[in-house]
Structure formats: C-alpha cells, structure tokens
Design brief:
Structural class: alpha/beta
Radius of gyration: 21 Å
Number of helices: 9
Strand order of the largest sheet: 1-9-8-5-4-2-3
Strand content: 5-15%
Helix content: 25-40%
Largest sheet: 7 strands, mixed
Shape: globular
Order of helices and strands: HHEHEHEEHEEEEEHHHEEEH
Number of strands: 12
Length: about 325
C-alpha cells in the first residue's frame, strides 16, 4: 500500500476456479455435441446436484437470481403479498420479490452473524405475509429450527437463499434441506462455479412444477419433453446451456475438496488474526458449520481509539 515489498507476491493467488483435465473433457465434449441449448449435461447436473445436496428435485438456471425469482413464484407469492427478507443481503434477495409484484418486508439482522435476526421475524408478519426468505449470508447458516417453527405456526413458506452457502450446515443438516425451496448460485466467485448459473432445489413436487413453468416461458412441458409450445402462465426464460452445464458437472466432482480447503484456509487466517487490536473475528454459533465463502470481520473503532466516522476507518483498513 505504501510502496514497500508486496506481502503477497505475484502469482501466489491462483485463478478461480482451477481448470483441470476433467473440465476440458466435459466442456469439449459438450462443444462437439449437436446440442448447445439446455440438454443432457444440464439434466445430468440437476440430478447430480440434487444427490450431492440431498434434495429430490433440482433445476439448473442461468443465475442464482433467476432461481430466487422462480422460488418466490413457485411458493405462490403474487401481487401485493408480503415476503420477509433480511435488511442486509445481496440485492437479489429483495429484487426477486419485486420481480413477481410482491412486497419485501425488511427484518433486521443481528450484529454478530450479520444474518436475519430470527427473534424479530414473527413481529414482522402481517395478514398478507406469504413467505420468509432466509439468507445464509457469507456461507453461515441461519438458525433454521427457529425460522421453520415460526413459518409453521403462521402457515408460511420458507425460501432458503443458499447462493453463498453450498455445503454449509445447521445442526449437521445441509442448507437447502430445511425450507420448502432453496436456491444456489454458480457465479464465478462462488464455491461451486460454472462462470454463471444457478440451481433451485426442493422436495415438493408442486413447487418443482411451478418453478419449472416460470423457468421455461410458462409452458407446462420443458425442452426435455415433447413440447406443445403453449404458454399457460406468465413465464421467463431462465434456462442454462450445455457448455455451462458441462463445466458445472466437472466442478461438482471436486466441490467437497474445495470446501475442505476453504475450511483449512479460514482456520489459518483466523489464527493469524488472533489478538489483533480493533478486529472482531467472525462468530460461529454452536450447531453451525459454515463453508467460509467469506470471512466477515467487524472493525472495533473504539478499541483503536477512533471516534470519527467509522466508515473512513473501514475503507482504510480494506485498502
């Protein structure tokens, strides 16, 4: 920062994702096939990801944002319905609600985890509330036992935004297995990437079929079936393509290995930051197993003797 020698030498950080022979094999085979739209690789990835996460159904989409919109629609949220969302998250956790003419109702987060405060969810419920979006931000799971208990009491759907949380667990159970429907991202900066893309998972056949309609023009039959090309509902085009599907399949074969490396890297980082004045390390509640997509650190300006604008200090620390 100040012109001295670099602490991290050039070339030390390798490109993400690692590209190996299996990636080349899958992608080149897809390139040389006759099908480049949604096809066999996308269908195989859906089955393989569903098995990996433990779900009955999976739909490969062109983004995690698309999967979120599909989830909102598939849960029956429509014009004027309320959907509870955390007050701090990636923008797609809110825009997915607006995409289907529903209204986001913000629930505050807690300081320690930067996730939705489960104790404040019930107070935000209105007669028009249809669903709760629980975002497992930074790869740290929300307390899904509390969320699901409130949802069951008020007959609400639970959407898990797991876009950053592949493989994260609560009480030993993977995210995406708690709510009615879940979404994952395959963007390049995610733990599982195909460059772009997303996945919707569910164990509910009705939700699966409703999501599938939105995914493909509102049709009741998908491109893998004998299509009649009649749209029976308002739909979008959220399908992926064969090259993306092939890369996703190849990367999925190494996802467990990636997650183990992330856990080890996070442990090294957190040990190195122990005792550093002004830094508050991440809080991992009992029962949570994060995937360490991000290591979120708070800055304690009081401990550093600063009483001016805390954002100035934050940006300086980031630099």
């Amino acid at each position: 920062v100040l012109g001295g020698p670099k602490a991290v030498p050039d070339g030390m950080i390798i490109p993400w994702p690692p590209v190996e022979d299996i990636d080349r094999q899958y992608v080149l085979a897809a390139l040389e096939s006759e099908i480049h739209r949604t096809g066999p690789n996308c269908q195989a990835f859906e089955q393989e990801f569903a098995v990996w996460n433990g779900n009955q159904y999976a739909i490969m989409t062109n983004s995690g944002t698309a999967a979120l919109h599909m989830a909102v629609a598939a849960c029956g949220c429509g014009a004027g319905d309320h959907v509870l969302v955390p007050a701090y998250s990636w923008s797609s956790s809110v825009t997915c609600v607006l995409h289907h003419n529903s209204l986001p109702v913000f629930v505050d987060i807690d300081f320690d985890r930067i996730n939705i405060d489960e104790e404040k969810i019930e107070a935000a419920i209105t007669p028009r509330t249809k669903a709760i979006i629980a975002v497992h931000l930074n790869g740290l799971a929300v307390n899904m036992e509390k969320v699901c208990a409130v949802a069951k009491k008020h007959n609400l759907k639970v959407i898990e935004d797991s876009c950053q949380a592949h493989g994260a667990r609560f009480q030993g159970k993977k995210v995406g297995l708690w709510g009615d429907v879940a979404t994952f991202s395959l963007n390049q900066n995610k733990c599982l990437t195909a460059g772009e893309g997303g996945v919707l998972t569910t164990d509910d056949e009705d939700i699966y079929r409703n999501a599938r309609m939105l995914w493909s023009f509102g049709e009741t039959r998908t491109p893998s079936e004998d299509r009649d090309y009649h749209a029976y509902a308002l739909g979008w085009m959220y399908r992926a393509n064969e090259l993306t599907g092939a890369l996703a399949r190849a990367q999925l074969t190494r996802l467990d290995e990636y997650l183990a490396i992330q856990e080890a890297n996070a442990a090294v980082l957190l040990r190195g930051l122990e005792g550093v004045t002004g830094l508050i390390p991440p809080v991992v509640p009992e029962g949570c197993t994060p995937n360490w997509y991000n290591v979120q650190i708070h800055i304690d300006s009081e401990a550093l003797g600063r009483d001016d604008d805390p954002s100035r200090l934050r940006y300086a620390m980031i630099k």
